[in-house]
Amino acid sequence: MAFFKNIEKVVYEGPDSKNPLAFKYYDPEKIVAGKKMKDHLRFAMSYWHTLTGDGSDPFGDATMDRPWNELEGMEKAKLRADIGFEFMEKLGIEYFCFHDLDIAPEGKNLKEKNENLDEIVAYIETLMAKTGIKCLWGTTNAFTKQRFVHGASTSPNADVFAVAASQVKKAMEITHRLGGVNYVFWGGREGYETLLNTDTALELDNMARFLQMAVDYKAKIGFEGQLLIEPKPKEPTKHQYDFDTATVLSFLQKYNLKDHFKMNIEANHATLAMHTFDHELNMCRINGVLGSIDANQGDLLLGWDTDQFPTNIYDASLAMIEVLKNGGLEPGGLNFDAKVRRGSFEPVDLFYAYIAGMDTFAKGLLIADKIIEEGEFDKFVEDRYASYNSGIGKQIVEGQVGFEELEAYAMSLEEVKNTSGRQELLENIFNSYIYSK
């Protein structure tokens, strides 16, 4: 039985459309930079915010009246799945992402939890076969329950480490079973509040041991998906070990894990780390670890993870430049780790939110493609660093000189001349790409 009875399949109607339930820029079959728009973007529904979010916050009760609210257990889980797949079909979304606790109730013990997961996975498989919708990635929730109060792989309690390992084992198995092409590690509470009660060396060593176990188990079960780490600063712990891309890269290099992991970058997490979204994507791209994207945005006036649907064309365009220069995201994608606002509690608001996010990144893709094709910014950057293509600059790059040689060269200079970086001009040119149709 259809839940969204009064909403037809959302289609592309073009920029001039006034229909709020139509795409203005997302034309899935349109060829951009050699492949279909849908294959560049690989949009995915986030199971958690879309199907389990209820509008509650630390100061108020739930605001969203969903059809499963009165149900319990596996009955609730199956109705959520039915509605989620109907929602994806109507939006033309071809992928979904999930935490284990999103799709099935925990039960009274680990055995019951695993049985619940097996039951719902079998049910979801039938929906996938019926619709053709695929799994982009899976993960486990190792942060909500009381047992993870001090962390999961970084907990001072070895029993918690063991439980977290069992959860990842099962979540990786069901992701593999569902044909998922990525598995994500979000640290959640992998960090600390005070050094007065923390052995940071042991915690970091244990986190590395945990990730190595995951690498080993991935090979053992024949899972060929990509392993992703999602950096996040500050929230929920004051000092997160996965603060940003640079921090995670340093960790992976120290423990010889860099060859096994890429990054799942969230725009709102970049904001909390006092970076821009495109900065984090760029750091990933130049280091060969850009894997997938959590598409959302934060509020610069608020100091927490607001997980809003992305509507900032400027940010989306800069992000898609990095994606295109990366050669795409596949096997990753763009999942909407975003939730409708607490006051947007009617079911149709989910459609408005996803349409806004999908159109935003589609427009960003079109702008980024044009910018790269015309090459104006790349030419400026190339010219700005031209001094490293010949003479002393080329010798520096090729490792042919040291301090003594550079001192002798510097002594011969009558003056040092710089050229303008022309930031304001470049930003105005960038704006012109956004303004143009």
Topology:
Elements: E1 31-32, E2 35-36, H1 37-41, E3 43-46, H2 47-52, H3 73-91, E4 95-99, H4 100-103, H5 110-131, E5 134-139, H6 158-177, E6 182-186, E7 191-192, H7 200-221, E8 226-230, E9 239-240, H8 245-254, E10 262-266, H9 267-272, H10 277-286, E11 290-294, H11 313-325, E12 334-336, H12 348-374, H13 376-384, H14 391-397, H15 403-411, H16 423-435
Helix pairs in contact: 3-5, 6-7, 10-11, 11-12
Helix/strand order, N-terminal first = EEHEHHEHHEHEEHEEHEHHEHEHHHHH
Percent of residues in helical segments?
40-55%
Tally of DSSP helical segments: 16
Structural class: alpha/beta
The whole-number mean of residue pLDDT values reads 97
> DSSP strand (E) fraction?
5-15%
Please give the order of strands in the largest beta sheet: 5-4-3-12-11-10-8-6
From the spread of the alpha carbons, the general shape counts as globular
Q: For the report, how would you describe the main beta sheet?
A: 8 strands, parallel
Straight-line N-to-C gap? 41 Å
C-alpha Rg (nearest Å):
24 Å
**Residue runs with pLDDT of under 50 for 5 or more positions:** none
Q: Could you give the count of β-strands?
A: 12
Can you give me a brief rundown of this structure?
This protein is an alpha/beta fold.
Question: Can you put this structure into words, describing what you see?
Answer:
By secondary structure, the protein is α/β, with parallel strands linked by helices. The chain is built from 16 helices and twelve strands. The chain has helices at 37-41, 47-52, 73-91, 100-103, 110-131, 158-177, 200-221, 245-254, 267-272, 277-286, 313-325, 348-374, 376-384, 391-397, 403-411, 423-435, and strands spanning 31-32, 35-36, 43-46, 95-99, 134-139, 182-186, 191-192, 226-230, 239-240, 262-266, 290-294, 334-336. Strands 5-4-3-12-11-10-8-6 form an eight-stranded parallel β-sheet. The longest helix is centred in the C-terminal third of the chain and has 27 residues, at 348-374. The model has no long low-confidence stretch (mean pLDDT 97).
